[in-house]
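quick one, 748 residues, struct below
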Amino acid sequence: MSALADGAGEAGPRDGGPGILLVNDDAGALFALRAILSDLDADIVTAPSGDEALLRLLKQDFAVVVLDVKMAGLDGFETARLIRKRPRTLHTPIVFLTSHRATDLDRAKGYALGAADYIFMPVAPEVLKEKIQVYLDAARTEALKAREAVQREAVMAGQLPEQGEAPTVAAAPGRAPGIPERGPPGCEDAERLIAEHAGDFVALLASDGSWLYASASYQREFTLSVQPHGNYLDIVHPDDRDRIRSALALLADGAAPRRLQYRVHGQADRYLESEFNLVCVPPGAVAQLVVVSRDITERKEMEAYVVHQSFHDPLTGLPNRLLLLDRLHQETVHRERLHPNVAVLCIDIDHFKEINDTLGHAAGDRVLQDVSERLGACVRDGDTVARIGGDAFVVMLPGLHDIDHAALVADKIIAAIAAPCHIEGSELHLTSSIGIAIFPDDGASADTLLRNADIAMYHARRDGGGRFSFFAPAMQEAANRRLAMGAALQRAIAGREFVQYYQPKVCATDGSICGFEALIRWPQPDGSFISPSVFIPIAEETGRIEPISAWALQQAGSELQRWQHEGIPAVPIAVNLSALQFHRASVASDLDAVVKRAGIEPRLLEVELTETGLMSDPALAVETLHRIHDMGMEIAIDDFGTGYSSLAYLKRLPIDKLKIDASFVRDITTDPSDAAIVLAIITLAHVLNMRVIAEGVETGEQVAFLVKNGCDEMQGYYFSKAVNNDEAIGLLRRGPFDLGQPPTETRT
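---
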């Protein structure tokens, strides 16, 4: 039965035998694999990640590595590539084991990285054991050959006795003059240790570190330093010399054997890991030490690499959040410094998602690398630039003489990022939003400073981007309100707290109701309502708008179904689709499902979209809108004139109606500019064969202007506020509005 070594432990293969390294980020899969392979005569070590596997390989050799392909962080392919980069593990067999349906390309990639086998789960336990046993047998054979070769070389070098001879301690050929060929009488332990480690760095030292014997490996590596009357400490790095001298003195006084790591100067600087053992000497003789050392330079380099990767962003090479927090903590704990102010700048690339969506993530990565270089050029040597995820960067400015310096750096960064960026033949013009928090006024801890800088960055982005904003306490209050509102929205969605109201749209020719717009209301326990202008933007920011919009669609379908069953004249209900909902691949099928579930004609469910939501991806909008329109639904652009519609796209889109935003209607009878804008929109819509709806109509003068100038439909408090289901039915049954007489009973 095998000994099972926990992946977190330091256990090595039993009796120096071969071991198996299992690498998988699924704890259940690791348990199952270890249970299956436990019948094999080998120790089993587990690693839950590629990083952990690399660390295990630094400390221990294995007969075979069984590696999962799909893992978080370092996947199997990247782990295999790093394993193959180490000379010591260049030929260690790697078996890819995966339940993933790999393509031919995946398999080819695995074999190109040096995979010995590619096994797909599920696999019969006996088959898996037979395959792994092959590698265990091969490892045992190679180990036996290696031991025999070392022994032969040792005999030839005079370090081991021939059969029948007494043991001796002899220097290898080329030893330094004056170093004894034999150890002092009674040093059998020294002879045994030297013989057992013939392939390593082995030295016999006096208690003061003087050379008594040096193996061939020491002779080759340190040449002139290994001289008669020389000292072992001469090859030790000056920074480590006192530590090794103290260790030698303690051992000479009878302390227990020790294992130490230190640097040495040879043909190249190296790291050695040495075991220091006090050997037997006759009573009264000078104490002697055997030093058995291994070169661990490669391990140290790999450890340094793993540590570097743990504290740096792999894409840009910048410090990551962990290293940033450490440096920020170091700066904020020393308030007694002459200039204690520290500025933290949170930087976000505006609309970065559009680059990924349009040019692809590879192009987005190159943009981030370019931005990181520009940020580095904007700061001093002692400042820190970090990437903490996505397109979020942080700059730490310690030791500020003047807080205004943070504003100067922010301006410099905004200008640097705004310079043209050429990626894959495209010239990109980026903008950035920056939030600034100052220690100690805006926070006494690293976490608080980062949070407040992020809040300030949100305000800069909300104000249009391409600017910076200093943190202010009022921002924290607003952030707390947003957080509370987001949590309340989640509860409202789960508790179905919303209600749907309906505002009539009136025909400008005869005053009849030609449709309704569905408007969501959020009632509160005290009878008040939270305004949609308050909760809708937060719902959009937090991603909660999608379930709210889906609920609104279902409610509109149910209400149309009710009207149909009650024999009420059918008029359309328009529902606002969020940008998130519109960009879902399933939006057309979702709308079709609502219509079919309600058993209504598609023409009775209208779709309203804002300009911004529509034009964020014009090519996709064309395709999606055509699918919706082909189903028989009418489409309106809401708040027209407030966004940035492209006329080239507008004429290609199957739009039926344009809704003039209330901000233009409000002053059409007093402001010539607004009147001209409204007339231009009406003319444009009619040229493109679209109908026009004016929102926010509140006065008879506005009604007269709109009717006179050819507006098709009107909507606003002049006719009616948004009403509940029953009141909407009452409006339908009441008949047309008198366009010449304000219906005061319906106004608020």
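DSSP finds 26 helices and 27 strands in the chain.
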